[in-house]
């Protein structure tokens, strides 16, 4: 089971940099956000399927505790810096960054005062729709596919405060789509109409493709997920430098550690 073993070492000292070029429309909703959320298609999650995919944070438990502590630390640093959008990425594939995204999303959504939006922007290898077991549940995130549909019709809602914008269709031109002005405009629309307190952007790994680099430009900050049995120190160093060139590196999560007597990772 993938987990985050030591939350005291999860987040390195956060960089309190202010974001560059904050869009004023994102902080001034032009409509009632609660009405926008009600327009989303509501669905439910299957606890058995979540457990099968190592999603443990739908309810408070010893298994959710590491993600809950990560949630609290991350929120504290983001609020201090005025950040709303966090990208979640990894040095290479196979680090479990999408699993971390899914667990963080459900942990955040348990705070009823927070509106949480999740976008699967790992366009080349989307996996959140599988992790949440929502292949057959309503609309799809087809906005970036060029379909003539608005965001409201392609986003699912869990409960009152969690939006899931998922993507079942891999895209070969992922970097180009993420770098397109329409994608930035879509995120501004979400900020304006839905006023999420936090938006999680699940990105591809930073290597070998440049998809994640294009996605970093859409975020205020980024969380890097490394895996103990996959990532090397050099991988992490290179990834941190890449993030620093395009965004603010909020911290590093070490995933997949094993501890004797605790069932493994």
Automatic annotation (TrEMBL):
Q: Which stretches are tagged as biased composition: Polar residues?
A: 16-34
| Superkingdom per UniProt | Bacteria
Which InterPro entries does the record associate with it? Bact_polysacc_biosynth/exp, P-loop_NTPase, Wzc-like_C
Q: Any one cellular component term from GO for this entry? A: plasma membrane
Annotated keywords? ATP-binding, Nucleotide-binding
Protein's UniProt keywords contain Transmembrane? no
Compositionally biased region (Basic and acidic residues): 1-15
For the keyword Nucleotide-binding, the answer is yes
Q: Where is this region: Disordered?
A: 1-34
Q: Name one GO molecular function term.
A: protein tyrosine kinase activity
Q: Which PANTHER family match?
A: FERRIC ENTEROBACTIN TRANSPORT PROTEIN FEPE (PTHR32309:SF13), TYROSINE-PROTEIN KINASE (PTHR32309)
Q: Name it.
A: Chromosome partitioning ATPase, Mrp family, contains Fe-S cluster
